[in-house]
Design brief:
It is built from 16 helices and twelve strands. Helix 8 runs antiparallel to helix 9. It is α+β, with helices and mostly antiparallel strands and about 425 residues long. Strands 1-2-8-5-3 form a five-stranded mixed beta sheet. A three-stranded antiparallel beta sheet has the order 4-12-9. The protein has one domain: Cytochrome P450 (Cytochrome p450, Orthogonal Bundle).
Amino acid sequence: MTVPAAPGRWPFLGHTPALLRQRFAFTSSLHEHGEIVKLYLGPAPAYFVTSPRLSHEVLVTAGAKFRKGAMFDKFRPYLGNGLVLSNGDFHRRQRRLVQPAFHHDRLAGYATTMRRAAAELSGSWQPGEVRLIDEDVQGLAVTIVGEALFSTELGKQAIDEARRSIFVVIQQGMIRALSPKFVEKLPIPGNRRFDEAIARMRAIVLEVIRDWRAQGVDHGDLLSTLLLAGMTDEQAQDEVLTLLTGGIETTALALSWTFHELGRHPEVEARVHAEVDEVLGGRPIAFDDIERLGYVRQVVDEVLRRYPIWLLMRRALEDVDLGGVRVAEGSEVIVSPHALHHDPATYADPDRFDPGRWAPERAARLPKGAFVPFGAGTRQCVGNRFAQNEIVITVATVAARWRLVPVPGRPVRVKFTSAAYPDSLPMTAVPR
């Protein structure tokens, strides 16, 4: 079978906002050329799979034939050999050690932290005050993940450092991941900020770990779970940084875009408020309420569909047949959650915000591989349920008390790195 080639070459070099936007549009159009499309990352060929069927094969059914791809290698100086980057037997071992931290009873405990933090944030707002909601929810995400990881005084210093450094690492790291190797050697401000943020984060996390070793006390936090499972200091450091990074970006972005979409769609907002009032009856949200907030969860799923990460990359460990195409060992294979989530063959009018897509009877008809906001298979984000619970709890806590109204004359612009970020999201807090 002949693999169709993408028209022209992928706009790979450079990372201006316009060019990043062009990349999103380019990858979203590749389904027009078939289920698997050959393109070039600079001089290197790669295979872009465009259909849910082949995406599911790469991520799940044939997942053992792939390891993480080239894009992820650029994060190794920061994440080391954490779950996002590790492979093979070591990855399976580490995942088994981390998994208990996200069991049902632990998630119930984290829900208390989520509810308190969300209530403290929304309780600090004043009627009629204009808030930069994107900044508010970024700080909230750092607080929640940080407090789940660390419960000691020194841990609070690590949380403060995460507020300072984590988004520098995420955004500059993705720019570096999508640029040629020589770019990371250039003495430019973005590189300096990235390298300095990495050094600060790794240093404070290692200090917290060594302090835990000296005390030897189970604090009931995620760090205690990792160390009591038998991880070395270096392994625990890598996993803590992985959990911090993975646990902050997705939830902060999802919360920003959720409040943005609720502000743009009063009819959706009204349904959310009605459901929150009915289920909670004026009391704070409890862990068991999450499953009862069915429409809120539909809204969250639609946000995760509309605003997912851009790319997942895998490298073939052996020759693989994908849709009748021989992909040679060592080749890069690309899956784009953004492109999958905006394919009109799966989602009618994909640019329209429609939580009704996630009504149970409609969602059940989606093909496997069509909705992958947290990846899939053995490499699915280990904290996906943590993130979803955090988003629902925060939305319900805010919606019980406030409407967040867009500010007239201040349109929300989008900037692109690993995903679509609001450049600034001013909204007015209006009491209900």
